[in-house]
Specification:
Helix content: 40-55%
Largest sheet: 5 strands, mixed
Distance between the termini: 54 Å
Oligomer: single chain
Number of strands: 7
Radius of gyration: 18 Å
Length: 182
């Protein structure tokens, strides 16, 4: 049996872990993602590695909720999380960023280029409809991606990559749907 103090510490640890999880998808939420991403950014700076940030926004997600209802919206979010998780490589970090956005941090995106990875993710979502009780729901995403080599590994450097990926996501959405801008 645990003593009261040990039990309190155990429960406190579980609460901290749960507070970093997005309940709709099971992914890291924004807060949890940032905390983990800062650690990876510091590691990249020490190892002189490059980082890539991929922001994926669901095209016309409001329509899914309006046309199919809240329950289907939740199924769609979970489906997207599963599709994106299947595209991860060891060491990649995935989280839910905003209502209809997901964020991915690639540590040392060597091998395939950032554009190749982003296109692979876009295509995986396009080719994987959400199977629901109301029939299939087709989704597409736009992606903005940016890469860089952090020097200090601080939050400011990570924020700069996220901001650049966000600008590129906005550019991709401005050009239409189902697009990638790197």
């Amino acid at each position: 049996w645990m003593g009261q103090e040990e039990e309190y510490t155990h429960v406190k640890g579980w609460i901290k872990r749960l507070s970093a999880i997005d309940p709709a998808t099971g992914l890291l939420n924004r807060h949890g993602w940032i905390a983990s991403a800062i650690r990876l950014t510091k590691r990249a700076a020490k190892g002189h590695k490059q980082l890539g940030v991929v922001l994926a926004g669901v095209d016309d997600f409001k329509r899914v909720t309006e046309d199919r209802g809240y329950g289907i919206r939740e199924e769609a979010l979970q489906h997207l999380a599963d599709v994106l998780e299947n595209q991860l490589r060891p060491g990649d970090l995935l989280g839910r960023w905003l209502e209809d956005q997901f964020i991915l941090l690639l540590l040392s995106p060597e091998g395939p280029s950032l554009k190749t990875v982003a296109e692979r993710i876009r295509k995986a979502v396009e080719e994987s409809p959400v199977r629901t009780s109301q029939g299939d729901v087709s989704l597409t995403i736009c992606i903005g991606a940016a890469s860089g080599s952090p020097q200090s590994g601080d939050l400011k450097e990570l924020d700069g990559l996220i901001s650049e990926a966000d600008r590129r996501l906005a550019g991709a959405k401005k050009d239409g749907v189902n697009r990638v801008m790197v």
